[in-house]
Amino acid sequence: MESFGGQPNRIEKNTVIKGDITSQADFRIDGKLEGNVKTSGKVVIGKDGLIKGKVECVNADIEGNFNGELYVSELLSLKSAAKIEGTVNVSKLAVEPGATFNASCTMGKGMPAATHKMQPNKVNEPAKVS
User: Fold this and answer.
1) How far is CA 95 from CA 6, 63, 78, in A?
2) pLDDT, tens digit, 9 for 90 and up, residues 50-70
3) Would residue 18 count as lying in a domain?
4) What is the pTM of this model?
5) Which end is more exposed in the chain, N or C (fewer Cβ atoms within 10 Å of the end residue's Cβ)?
6) Around 48, how many Cα atoms within 13 Å sit in the side-chain half-sphere?
7) Residue 1: inside a domain, yes or no?
8) Is 71 helix (H, G, I), strand (E, B) or coil?
9) What is d(CA 93, CA 54) in angstroms, rounded to the nearest whole number?
């Protein structure tokens, strides 16, 4: 796992965490996380891993279970044992045969609309007749 902003973080098997995580580095989950993850790195959910919540990341490799909202700005890779439920917004998607993908999926920029800068509304001017 390549680190983008520091040492990779790891939640080991048989560990359960309830809460939100924000990091500049990659994250690997082999345990269970109920909460949100926001990172400028990569999220990996191992075979025994489970996330219930919202995840925002650059890349993601999922072999375990995910239930919630997933926003991936680049590549989401689903391994054959992956089980995904919820909503997914990605730029690119790779799915191995055998993966379970029961989610509504939007392909585009990968990040929720709330994270994009809003443009001010332009006021329409009346048409001028010459």
Assistant:
1) 28, 11, 5
2) 999 999 999 999 999 999 999
3) yes
4) 0.78
5) C
6) 8
7) no
8) strand
9) 18
